[in-house]
Design a protein that fits this description.
Oligomer: single chain
Number of strands: 10
Strand content: 25-35%
Low-confidence stretches: none
Structural class: alpha+beta
Order of helices and strands: EHEHHEEEEEEEE
CATH class: Mainly Beta
Radius of gyration: 19 Å
CATH superfamily: q2cbj1_9rhob like domain
Strand order of the largest sheet: 1-8-5-10-3-2
CATH architecture: Sandwich
Number of helices: 3
CATH topology: Jelly Rolls
Largest sheet: 6 strands, antiparallel
Shape: globular
Length: about 220
């Protein structure tokens, strides 16, 4: 064995941001009332399987004529922009010139329900805002938690030397427990899901697919 001290550097790091949106108390109450009132067939995503324990809306939430939704859209897109800018090398003026595009929907994870694994196609970033969250379930530590999967290691051979790597080199997945007023931002290509909700209350989320366009860019692919 060599006695030389190695130089370890993390590569292929993945940005993940947690952002609190200002003034969430009144906003979340209004959003929860609106979301629950629109958990109907008219607002259901027609491509989603019918599941009495999980409701996913159409992806037009940011287009609703609602003051609460307008406030949420402004807050979410501003917070996403801030997180993305922090992870980029753009000067502020150049980043501010980019055009932001987004599509958003709401989801209701009812008791004993969960959100199936998914990614956010045709987008660069995924943002998940928590409107309301159930209390922690004493029998399930990850109840109603957002799981993000480290899929880039799926084809890696595992032995005794790489299955217990320390951070930031570990191959474990990441878990975030939604908190009302907080939003998670991460690359849209990451596979994610919401674990089974073992509490007695609903989890209310707003999910947005977000992408940015340079002013000289001719066109973006359709959603």
């Amino acid at each position: 064995m060599t006695s030389a001290v190695p130089t370890l550097v993390p590569i292929f790091a993945t940005p993940f941001a947690l952002v609190s949106i200002g003034g969430p108390a009144d906003l979340n109450a209004a959003l929860a009332t609106l979301i629950l009132s629109r958990a109907t067939e008219a607002y259901r995503d027609p491509s989603a399987p019918r599941d009495p324990l999980f409701f996913r809306s159409r992806e037009d939430l940011f287009e609703w004529d609602s003051e609460a939704v307008a406030q949420l859209r402004w807050g979410m897109l501003g917070a996403v922009s801030g997180a993305v800018m922090a992870a980029n090398c753009y000067p502020a003026a150049e980043f501010d010139a980019l055009g932001v595009q987004a599509r958003a929907r709401f989801a209701i994870v009812r008791p004993n329900g969960g959100m199936p694994g998914t990614t956010a196609p045709m987008a660069s970033w995924c943002a998940i805002y928590c409107v309301a969250a159930p209390p922690a379930a004493p029998t399930r530590a990850d109840s109603a938690a957002l799981r993000l999967y480290a899929v880039r290691h799926a084809s890696m051979f595992l032995d005794a030397t790489n299955c217990q790597l320390r951070a930031p080199f570990s191959v474990t997945h990441y878990v975030w427990r939604p908190v009302p007023g907080q939003m998670a931002v991460f690359p849209a290509s990451i596979l994610h899901e919401v674990a089974l909700n073992r509490a007695a209350e609903d989890l209310l989320l707003v999910t947005a697919r977000v992408r940015f366009a340079h002013r000289d860019q001719q066109a973006q692919p359709p959603w």
